[in-house]
Amino acid sequence: MSHVKDPSLAAQGRMNLEIAEKHMGALLVVRDRFAKEKPFAGLTIGMALHVTKETGILVRTLTAGGAKVAITGCNPLSTQDDIAAALAEEANVEVWAYKGESTEDYYKFLQAVVGKKPDITIDDGCDLISMMHKNHPELLSTLIGGCEETTTGVQRLKAMEADGALKIPMVAVNDNKTKHMMDNYYGTGQSTFDGILRSTNMLIAGKIVVVLGYGSCGKGVAMRAQGMGAQVIVTEVDPFRALQAAMDGHRVMPMAEAARQGDLFITVTGNLNVVSYAHMESMKDGAVLANSGHFDAEIDLKTLEARATGKRRVRHYLDEYKLSNGRIVYVAGEGRLVNLASAEGHPSEVMSLSFCGQALACEYLVKNKGKLPAGVLTMPPDIDQYIADLQLKAMGLSIDALTDEQAKYISSWEEGT
Ligand SMILES: NC(=O)c1ccc[n+]([C@@H]2O[C@H](COP(=O)([O-])OP(=O)(O)OC[C@H]3O[C@@H](n4cnc5c(N)ncnc54)[C@H](O)[C@@H]3O)[C@@H](O)[C@H]2O)c1
């Protein structure tokens, strides 16, 4: 039986789902086909994804295809309670999620999904698959495969694969071009600021914004910061990405130096303690810290909690910490993904692309049941291109096609100057 915060929020949730649907035209094309072909008849899909209105449309796409869905969140602060309530009322859906879950409930809910013995899993961060491998290896023999949504989840899967621990085929949906080049870049770029602004209402123009990590997400965040009139500093450990940042017009320096200069710090590295307590001590009074990477490990909150001389919740998901040197730092979204903790995550248009990837990855796993090797797999490029075509159509855009002469020219080697 579902567990949500307040079933009476369902009416609001249904309206938000309606709005999401209006912007997810590409996914609706997939849903209409699934409704006719029923690729998931008789199958249970277990999901640990942010329970947002966009995820709701993915759930409806899978149930239209004949699946039973068991879903929980993948972050204690990212569930939209109205959406959880609305989904709990839908046929063939069970949902366990509320915003502000305790750690105990978080794992209890993952366990509830595992208890449904899923045939396919969809993870965002690898918690479900990792739990099934660690605690329920007996369920792996009937698991057709799984799909992973985010960079950190794919990294964890690759670590499992390197250890010889990964026993099933896992599709790295994050590695679709239609995912990381869109969702991570434009989605994180926009929604990270949505979260920071809801928490702080600060002016970005004229500020020094430090972006830690210049990958798909960091590039998007830096681009939006620059567009809003900030001076951007990038910190990196990868020399190629650092060069890209410098040539995109940003200042590049080590964090020890950037810490003294920044007004707003945004972590998107997927790494541990990239903002240390020593960095915080050297920051300006009133500096704002936010994380948009998957786990709340990027800002060293443990040491901050232990050493701060005072802490107050001063606004919507904004905590003020007083440091022993008398200065103040603010942390938005409790150091969890700020776009989901303080706001509503990525806009629907971009999630339509990501979730076409998830829906078609599930279908790909079913169609190739028993034929795929255990390990981390990428989707065939033609499926990725099909998703891009669907989205272009949904946006009312068309593009040129190669002429026969051009196709021949670019695939030949004889012609030179
Ligand atoms: N907020 C969201 O909605 C959202 C969406 C997509 C991805 N994510 C998460 O965001 C994180 C980043 O994803 P990505 O796709 O940009 O990954 P990426 O691998 O493309 O980029 C991460 C970058 O961080 C750099 N880095 C690592 N350690 C560092 C350090 N100590 N200092 C400075 N830079 C460092 C790496 O060199 C790399 O360039 C992941 O945890 C991912 O799961 C969040």
Describe this structure in words.
With 417 residues, this protein is α/β, with parallel strands linked by helices. The protein folds into two domains: 7-179 and 346-394, 3-Layer(aba) Sandwich (Rossmann fold), CATH 3.40.50.1480; 186-341, 3-Layer(aba) Sandwich (Rossmann fold). 45% of the residues lie in helices and 16% in strands. The protein contains 17 helices and 15 strands. The chain has helices at 10-22, 25-37, 53-64, 81-88, 103-114, 127-135, 151-162, 177-200, 216-227, 239-247, 255-261, 277-281, 301-307, 338-341, 348-367, 381-394, 404-410; strands at 44-48, 68-72, 93-96, 120-123, 145-148, 169-172, 208-212, 231-235, 251-252, 264-267, 287-291, 310-315, 318-322, 328-332, 375-377. Helix 1 (10-22) crosses helix 4 (81-88) and helix 2 runs parallel beside helix 3. The longest helix is centred in the middle third of the chain and has 24 residues, at 177-200. Bound molecules: nicotinamide-adenine-dinucleotide. Nicotinamide-adenine-dinucleotide binds at residues 150-152, 180, 184, 188, 212-218, 235-238, 241, 268-271, 274, 292-294, 337, 339, 346.
